Amino acid sequence: MRSRARQWHLLTALVVAVALVLQTVLVIEGSAVLAEHDRPGLWLRLGRLVSYFTIQSNLLVLVAAITLVRHPGQDGRAWRVLRLAGITGITVTGIVHFFLLRPLLDLGGADWVADKMLHLVVPVVALVGWLVFGPRPRIDGRDVARALAWPLAWLAWTLVVGGASGWYPYPFLDVDEHGWARVLGASVGVTVLFLALFAGAADLDRRLRPAPE
To answer: Can you give the pLDDT at residue 36?
Structure first.
């Protein structure tokens, strides 16, 4: 079981690493810029890249996967929070992309590959790995409260920076275009989604058999 777990976590780490490197190269080369009409400079493009929730959730999944390759039964309070935030974050990434962002995108070539890896392939691989290989049990109420701090902090920071700069990483958070009422409504909806996923993860963590054995 531990051998299979290591193999899956290694696969996860490799998939995430390839996706992140590919997306970074595309941003550096300018073929996947983050502004359609007024392309910003390189450092601003890279700064905006890491501002995306998608990139941050992929990074959390990568760090957790790397540690699990070495220790499939990894534990520790800080690590539990990182793992829970990564799994729920990457799940939200996949759901929001599929239902809200995918219809707005018209990508091709390497841009399409990077987009699908970051938003669809990684969420599936990470979630399957967590369901099958755990490790668990690893979730309690304190972990949920601490893990929720990251998406809330990201949201607050994004709205503050967006208000100052006029740039928002996702269309549904654009206050200038949609107004505060719609943006706050969307923010509450995503927060509710997070809470539902946290509750579901905690319930599965209790119900599923301990892993790795």
So the answer is: 55
Q: Which long-range contacts (CB under 8 A, 24 or more apart) does 4-9 make?
A: 4/133, 5/68, 5/72, 5/133, 5/134, 5/211, 5/212, 6/68, 6/69, 6/72, 8/128, 8/129, 8/132, 8/133, 9/65, 9/66, 9/68, 9/69, 9/72, 9/129, 9/133
Other Cβ atoms less than 10 A from the Cβ of 94: the count is 21
Closest by CA to 200, choosing from 131, 118, 119, is: 131
Under 8 Å between Cβ of 5 and 133:
yes
Q: What is the pLDDT of residue 212?
A: 84
Cis bond upstream, residue 123 (ω within 30): no
Q: What is the dihedral of CA 167, 173, 178, 183, to 10 degrees?
A: -140
Instruction: Please say whether the beta carbons of 84 and 147 come within 8 A.
Output: yes
Q: Is 207 exposed, middle or buried (0-12, 13-18, 19+ CB in 10 A)?
A: exposed
pTM above 0.85, yes or no: yes
- Over residues 29-78, the pLDDT tens digits come to 887 555 555 677 888 889 999 999 999 999 999 999 999 999 999 999 99
* pLDDT (0 to 100) of residue 41: 85
The three-point CA angle 34-168-170 to 5° equals 80
